[in-house]
């Protein structure tokens, strides 16, 4: 009898635990009939797209549907943490009532000017990869619903270039203190509104700094993010010109980039990021000039001395 009583108690405890888990599952994530609202998010009409030609327009759509069988449902909030920082707001603005069998759709075009800008936006979800996987979240009286779409950032195929001298990439310069020191030895580097770089820590800070975040904390504005992306490539381009005699096409590319950095024209700044990056990558396979000593690659030492000299400009993109 004792064994039977113990078995009966264990069975009841198991049934209670299963019931509790089921309650959590239904209350937390829910099933279709338990939700007042469901959502669907797409980019360019698809759940998964690839950006490999820039500038790229990602047309996001956000659809919220009332699935309650008999009553209207009230959409309380509709947010997308990453795209909100790019200017997205759901329209019509919540709270808003959605009738039975009804739905609301809001659209948002995201302009991505370059591969570098694309991966910078991708990093805003907290994962440093080349996927923009941000989540759209809606809330209502009985809970919430989430949905997402993936945009993958890929480099576009660069056009063939004629090499007047070797080039090296951002990754080469940021890890080689001696090479960067030799570039700075030829004079200050003007980066427009970013400032004039005269010291090794500041130069390393431009190359090691986060395009998404200010060094003091907080997300960079769209203008400051684009300026930072162009500035770091422009610094590398100027060093390629100084140290190796490389010439971009057009020859005014780097001076055009510096001039753009002095403006608030985000479209102009964005349009120059990939061309300067392509210049820095274009002749990377050529050997360095005879006698040039690049020094060892010491990423830990280089990052340790890096001091990002940038701060919030307080400016925004001009129309």
Count of distinct strands? 13
Please give the share of residues in helix.
25-40%
Structural class: alpha+beta
Tell me what portion of residues adopts beta-strand conformation: 15-25%
Unreliably modeled segments:
1-34
As a whole number of angstroms, the C-alpha radius of gyration is 26 Å
Mean pLDDT: 87
* Biggest β-sheet description: 3 strands, antiparallel
State the end-to-end distance: 84 Å
Order of helical and strand elements = HEEEEEHEEHEEEEHHEEHHHHH
Main β-sheet, spatial strand arrangement: 1-3-7
Helix run count: 10
Anisotropy-based shape: elongated
Structure notes:
There is one protein chain. By secondary structure, the protein is α+β, with helices and mostly antiparallel strands. The chain has helices spanning 2-28, 81-84, 115-122, 170-175, 177-184, 200-208, 222-244, 253-261, 266-282, 299-305, and strands at 37-43, 48-51, 56-66, 73-75, 77-80, 96-98, 103-112, 131-132, 135-140, 143-148, 150-153, 189-190, 196-197. It has a three-stranded antiparallel sheet with strand order 1-3-7. Strands 2-11-8 form a three-stranded mixed sheet. Helix 5 crosses helix 7 and helix 8 (253-261) packs antiparallel against helix 9 (266-282). The model is unreliable at 1-34 (pLDDT under 50).
Task: Give the SSE map.
Layout (H helix, E strand, L loop, with lengths): L1 H27 L8 E7 L4 E4 L4 E11 L6 E3 L1 E4 H4 L11 E3 L4 E10 L2 H8 L8 E2 L2 E6 L2 E6 L1 E4 L16 H6 L1 H8 L4 E2 L5 E2 L2 H9 L13 H23 L8 H9 L4 H17 L16 H7 L14
Parallel strand pairs: 2-11
Antiparallel strand pairs: 1-3, 3-7, 4-6, 5-9, 8-11, 9-10, 12-13
